[in-house]
Design brief:
Layout: H1 2-29, H2 38-71, H3 110-121, H4 125-136, H5 140-149
Helix pairs in contact: 3-4, 4-5
């Protein structure tokens, strides 16, 4: 009986050691934290804030564009296609109560921009370039490039 117990221990002990060793190796190789690291969390937060900021910037730009388009709508009592007779003041030059061709923020007067768009749409690109050059005192290439982008 003592011999059988010794044989059993000689067989079972290496088996127990082998199982323990396999468990230790699998535990050591298993990833410790399956959660998100601080760097990944920061990058995700930064991306979401960036997306929110971009969305708010787009909303603000669309609102600004709508305001400009609303202010550039022709009034029912004024014709945008009429040209002044020689010696009269151009509708683009600043008169009392009118805005200058270029606003203080560096943008083109919305009424002038609307008139230029109407001229381009009606196929009068050269006339639009002339009107823009007279109103802004810009050179020919600058005016042509602006009109080509309309």
């Amino acid at each position: 009986m003592g011999n059988n117990l010794g044989d059993l221990l000689l067989t079972a002990l290496p088996l127990v050691i082998l199982i323990g060793l396999l468990w230790a190796v699998s535990t050591a190789l298993r990833p410790r934290d399956t959660g998100v690291s601080e760097a990944e969390r920061y990058q995700r937060e930064l991306a979401s804030r960036s997306a929110a900021h971009q969305a708010s910037e787009i909303q603000a730009a669309l609102a600004q564009r709508a305001r400009i388009e609303a202010s550039a709508q022709p009034s029912q009592n004024r014709s945008h296609t009429s040209r002044p007779a020689p010696g009269q003041q151009s509708p683009n030059s600043p008169a009392r109560g009118q805005q200058p061709a270029i606003l203080p923020n560096g943008q083109l007067n919305p009424q002038l921009a609307f008139e230029l768009q109407n001229l381009v749409r009606s196929g009068q690109k050269i006339q639009a370039i002339k009107v823009l050059r007279q109103a802004t005192h810009s050179d020919l290439m600058t005016a042509k490039n602006y009109i080509d982008r309309l």
